[in-house]
Known about the structure:
Distance between the termini of chain A: 117 Å
Shape of chain A: elongated
Number of helices of chain A: 25
Strand content of chain A: 15-25%
Mean pLDDT of chain B: 87
CATH superfamily of the largest domain in chain A: DD-peptidase/beta-lactamase superfamily
Oligomer: heterodimer
CATH topology of the largest domain in chain A: Beta-lactamase
Structural class of chain A: alpha+beta
Amino acid sequence: MLNRGRNIEKGRVITRRMFILxxxxxxxxxxxxxxxxxxxxxxxxxxxxxxxxxxxxxxxTPPQRGIIVDxxxxxxxxxxxxxxxxxxxxxxxxxxxxxxKIKNIIGLDQFEIKKLYKKKERLKPxxxxxxxxxLTWEQFSKINLYLHExxxxxxxxxxxxxxxYANDLVHIVxxxxxxxxxxxxxxxxxxxxxxxLKVGKYGIENSQEKMLIGNYGIKRYExxxxxxxxxxxxxxxxxxGNKVNLTIDIEIQKYAQELLKGKAGSICAMDIFTxxxxxxxxxxxxxxxxxxxxxxxxxWQEIRNNPLKPLINKSIAGLYxxxxxxxxxxxxxxxxxxxxxxxxxxxxxxxxxxxxxYGVKYHCWKKEGHGYMKLRNAIKQSCDIYFYEMAxxxxxxxLSIIAKRYGLGNNILGDIFNDEKKGLVPDTKxxxxxxxxxxxxxxxxxxGIGQGYxxxxxxxxxxxxxxxxxxxxxxxxxxIKDYSINYKDIINKIKLDRSNFPLHERNYLDDINVEYYxxxxxxxxxxxxxxxxxxGSTNEQYGTSYKSRYDDPQxxxxxxxxxxxxxxxxxxxxxxxxxxxxxxYKKRDHxxxxxxxxxxxxxxxxxxxxxxxxxxxxxAAPLASKLIKRIIDRHKLREQFNNGNTSLA
Amino acid sequence: xxxxxxxxxxxSFLDKLKSIDYLLILLIIAIGSTSVFAIYxxxxxxxxFYTKNHIIRLSIxxxxxxxxxxxxxxxxxxxxxxxxxxxLILLITVLFFGISASxxxxxxNLYFLNLQPSELMKIAVIICFARxxxxxxxxxxxxxxxxxxxIILLIIPCYLVIQQPDLGTSILIAGSGIAIIWLAGxxxxxxxxxxxxxLVSLPFAISILKPYQKSRILTFFNPDRDxxxxxxQIIQSKIAIGSGGFFGKGYLKGTQSYxxxxxxKHTDFIFTLFSEEFGFIGSxxxxxxxxxLIYRIINVGLVSRSFxxxxxxxxxxxxxxxxxxxxxxxxxxxxxxxxxxxxxxSYGGSSLLSIMLGLSIVMSCKIYNQEQISVY
Lengths: 649, 376
């Protein structure tokens, strides 16, 4: 019985202890339940996001770059089919072996292989390595033949930038290349960038990036823990960049470039009413296609070390003294301010009796002198003596107002080209500010023949000529088509205005800034006088560009030559009087020419500069003459096309 | 005594069938079939290796469970020490002839099954201790003489299992043994003292752990310490469970496991997969099934007459609770990852075998609940 009692006690203990344990179990299970509640209900969103981050991976697909076309919709920059070889890194077991095989198939050199390894280090394990972005057809077909042996290799048909008019347009269109860290700071690139995407490096390609770059596509894949793609969930298609329509006529551009072949210089042509740049050639030039896949060292050195500096866009970044091409503007300024009667006669006595001011001698270019000159003749025969005296009377400040108003000393194309130069139109204020010196009258005198401090770009000279030729109206030069303006109306308005308003208020002359398509002249007759003198310069005997003239009124043009010194002419030089060919290249004069055509009903202005070409009449005017004919021949076509286009727009 | 023995032998087959705990069987079937679906899902919805094996094992071990349920509880009692001895021999065999996988030597190749003796030891310790305390008078329980024996019996297998190394199983074995000592009525002060001692010696204990075990424990306290290494499992498991939400992502739609972010998803992390696909509702339901199972086992103990049966059932119920708790708490990031399977749900023959064996003893306790076993 004692046993029995003990047993009952033992049974009770066991049961009691069991219940204590059970209570503990219930507590712990409650703990688990609350934890589940926390994870799955309270923090659900957080873990859902983490889970999606885990499983979804995005691949960006590169957009196609927008194309660039000329005035006639001819493609200047296209996207060509190229053969590429990509390696999908997460499908490769042994990278070394794969690279070795590829090396043997397409023939990579040690340097290129090193580059690939470097590139690979920067990639994530699920990224794609572009082994070559431009395979030849032979390499491409070979790769396809051995494809079964190459794990992770993917032959890809892709696109890359191609410039069909390679050398003819590089200074305008520019080129593309791999994005640098600096490029990636730009918002338009940062927002649309995909690794491997080429971005604009120069010219239109660079400044119109926002238009051209397009938007990348997104492919969303579900991936597993090792990053392998399982299935495509989503695909937002990439959008090609917009078309950029230039005002350039590629035929004229090509011809201008051809005329400059073998020389260093620039040719610009502009519509004098619309301000459309029809051609803007710069020589020497280079092939932008070489930059697309990374230029090789040899080619790059060749371009960089060329003494004629092909990398500089001479039309907007080349600075030259305008020389005598500046004279029509000096004459116009003197007439507008009423400084001088055009019938005033000055005698040019040749090198023996030069113009003298405070003991300093100023020579005319013509050794034997021009004799008695009136203003028209002085422009026509480009007499320096007449202009020395006229500039002295006019003063540099008045001259600078007119020069600036007609387009010198300022940025013309806005922010299209980041290398565009402003040039320099000096005045007394400028000198005091920049050089902290006062102005000397002698500087005014040489400024009168476009020498001295004055610096202009060829395109500025073209604009100056255009704005004189259109009767003195301000135009807006541009190189990208502007469909927001109806130019037909503007041309009619300017022509009507010109026939009705011979005079403008006098105080109007003090202001540099004029609204677009508004009069800049004070007296219409002054403009007409200058235009007539320029006609004489080209189409009358003793005119400096008489040899380049056309008698056919359809092509007949008016112009002004210029020969700009690159150094001071010494007495010794005057005595030797060498031919251009006999002088060292670097010391030869720059040859310049500005013109407008046709004379009867002007439409185009043109400027030509041949670096170290000698005299403007011999080196520059003949080229202008040839180009003018081509431009006028194509005028009707352009007019038809543009009218068709504007009506469409 | 004689009367009782006769009474026991006089159970008719019909009586036996009547006294089977059918709810317990139903629960086993319910959890068993859930596990089949879960393992089918770990294979991405394909009927292949793991699913096939799991179904075969489940059917074999379930049949074994049914057959062994009819073994008399006194037979289990008589062979309890033998059971323990065999388990110990097998553990020693592992030490010399065991086969290794991923740095641990835990298995013996039995050709049809790679047996993990430490799993069997979980049951062996419970049945051995139940027998031990069955015959000890309540007055003797507090004496050192009777306390030292079970402690030695517990330390030997725990030490052997730690050597494999398998910290998780070792802790579970120790836990079930201690549970029975507790149930037998050892004074609470012993538990308090040894608990304090454990706490004090913890830093020392950690210092002798294997580097990977140390890193697991450190990672438990800060999973972001090494998000792609030791912390990876905890982080990914929490993401999977958390993203399941209230209703889950749907069957076969658990992205975390389908996309292989989950490690060991068919064994230790099976609950994670289940919870991701069936959400809070599913998890709580599964938890409830386990609670019912534990409740039914306790119930058998309550209706049993012998101390052996009571101690065994309560002990086994506590063991099941420990397995479930440790596993789920582990995948929820509440405990360090120690490697403990979820009973019945996890893929793994030895674990399933030992659970089924243990359950069959419970069932035999139920069928022969009136059987009185001599304390002498």
